[in-house]
Amino acid sequence: MLGISEIGVLDTGTQIYIITAFFLSPLSIYALRKHYKGPRRKRQEWATNLITICVVILNINVWCFLIWSLKQNSQRLEKSPLHTGLFRMKFDSVEVSGFSFDVDRQQQSLFMQQGLQLNLQPDNQDNKGANGEKEKDRELFHVDGLFNCSSIQLKDKASIAATQSIDLNQESDLKHLREQLKSLSGANEAYKLCFQDNIEQLEDYILRRKWFKFCGSAVWMDLYKVYFMVNRIVYAKDGRRNNPTISILSGQVFDKNWHEIKGFKFPHSDLVFPSILPHDLDLGKKENKIVIGSEDPRILLNTYNDSNGVRFQEPVIIFNARSTEVKWARAMHVYRPFNDPHRTIRLAIKDKKRSFIEKNWAPFMDNDDVNNDQNMINFIYNFNPLRIIKCNLQSGECEKISGPRFNPIDANDNAGVLRGGTNIIPIPKEYLPLMEMTQDRKFWLGIARSHNNECGCMRELYRPHIFLISRSFTKQDSFELNYVSSMVDFNINPEPWSKSHSNKGTCVDGKLVLIPNSIAYWDIDLRDGTDYMGLTFSEADRTNKLVHLRGVLKHIHNVMHEMETENVVENTSKVDATTKEGIESKIEAIDLSNKLLGFCSTYLADEYCETAEKVFGW
């Protein structure tokens, strides 16, 4: 049952009943007692007896409903990640700019009429040199005034607010995990790679210089009322975390207040957390063992009913790793630690030439079947243009279900400005504003990231971007990128890449890495409709931190209302979408807008870096 401190988080109706019950009952008892102390004849009047019966029934009803309501609220609050401490935190506003082609479909229509062909993709998978193409692209976009990103720009200065960041790493974490790996290394050759240190080096030195814990991706599991978080643990024998000897996954559990729970064990799993996640590691065939193991883990919650109709939840972990099965190329893998703590499944896309580097896939679920009998998972393969793939969790076989075909000649040209960041979460229909564009489409929300070169005084800059995707209820191949924000830092000034430069200024270091890892939770306070979101992120490939956001849903509503009011083509377009030519024209328009939104996401990069340098004192 609820405690006194939690009464403030109850919905308004329940709070009114509590006040009514605690005032009505004593007052009614007092009134009846005083009345019955009068002359005996009053006690025998039928009217008095009737009133007495009504008051008793009213009290019983009030208390019965109150007890029922408190039980309902107790169950809801236990499952909810929201808590009173969150409501007391200080939130500071975050200004967010963004872009949507629904704001000015005439621009898109004009492109199609002119037959303008744009290639916005960078030269290679790693996006190196992408900014070298930026100025070239900018010139192309301004030819004859055909297009400017400012024509599809949205601004929202007040909706989103953020707390100060919270450090989720503890000093003892790496020591505990290193000790566990040492005990496991006797039976696992891969773990022996973690102990290639000189005998004279002290443990404190080794932990400080060669071990790193970051890329923490978390998800709220309401069935167990805890957060499960997966981390990337890096050992680099030469101390360079961007060139690791081996990367290993670990898991840990937090309560809703983000206090770690030690010794936690899930049903249907023998693992006791915090713990190394003991999945199989591919050591390759080379004698020199380097860049071994699992990188960039992301987590997704898989909820379904088992054969007996019992609700079940499991974390599905996605990571990339080199694999001998594909000639030591980098491939995406799926890992289900509650299903089999040792087995991983490599993902492969049907009818696509294999890329040497597969990474940055953004996972989400698109399954209306609560039984999830097909064990399917979706990914945004890339944003520019938008391609969606669906994969089987059992076999690892994937196929493209939406977006243009892959390049049949060069398999490595599919990267773009935007890359995968967090897990992508569905937006419940009841969260969406009631408007024409939301009636026949499903929407998802995620936070991507961009890699920018030569931005202000920064040589390299990684920043998050909020985005929306959607598809028709009836067509799985109709995914669209509806909205992309510009670079947003949620008021976070990340640590510089090199600690040795921390006292010399961020511009001297020249590299700022702020990577969004997961949307850990998203829920609404029923008292006033305010939504709260938890975002985990890493800085400089060595931290795990959390920031609470408020008002993301309000931001989405503002974006959608502006998209709806400014939409000028939906009812005026003369293209017949029922004909083959009309369908092809519509698909071309969607693909084009997806590409341009990707480009526009970093359109304000120079302006952002100039402002951030002053605000954060780089």
In short:
The protein has 618 residues and is α+β, with helices and mostly antiparallel strands.
Question: Could you please describe the fold and organization of this structure?
Answer:
It is a single chain. The strands form five sheets. Strands 1, 2, 3, 4, 5, 22, 23, 24, 25, 26, 27, 28 and 29 form a 13-stranded mixed sheet that branches. Strands 6, 7, 8, 11 and 12 form a five-stranded mixed sheet that branches. The two termini are 50 Å apart. The chain contains 13 helices and 29 strands. A hairpin with a 4-residue loop joins strand 20 and strand 21. About 8% of the residues have low confidence. Helix 1 packs antiparallel against helix 3 and helix 5 crosses helix 12. It has 618 residues and is an alpha+beta fold. It is globular.
Determine the oligomeric state from the structure. Answer: single chain
Q: How many H/I helices?
A: 13
> What is the overall silhouette?
globular
Largest sheet features = 13 strands, mixed
Which range does the strand content fall in?
25-35%
Count of strand segments = 29
Fraction of residues in helix: 25-40%
Helix/strand-derived class? alpha+beta
